[in-house]
Amino acid sequence: MSAPAAVPELPTRSSMLTRLAAQGAGGVLDRSSGSLYLVDGQVVHAESKSATAFGQLLIGSRRLTYTQWAEALGRSGGDSRRAAAHLVKDGHLADGTVELCRLTALFDAAYFALAPGGGPARFRHGVTPEGEPGMSVPASRVLAESLRRRRLLGSMWPGPGMDDHPVVLRPPRADRPVPVRMRALAALADGSRTPADLARTLGRPTFHVLLDVRRLAIAGLVEPPGPRARQPTDGPRTTRPPTARSRGPDGFDTPDTALLQRVRDALEACL
Question: HSE of 87 in the Cβ direction (CA atoms, 13 Å)?
Answer without folding.
Answer: 30
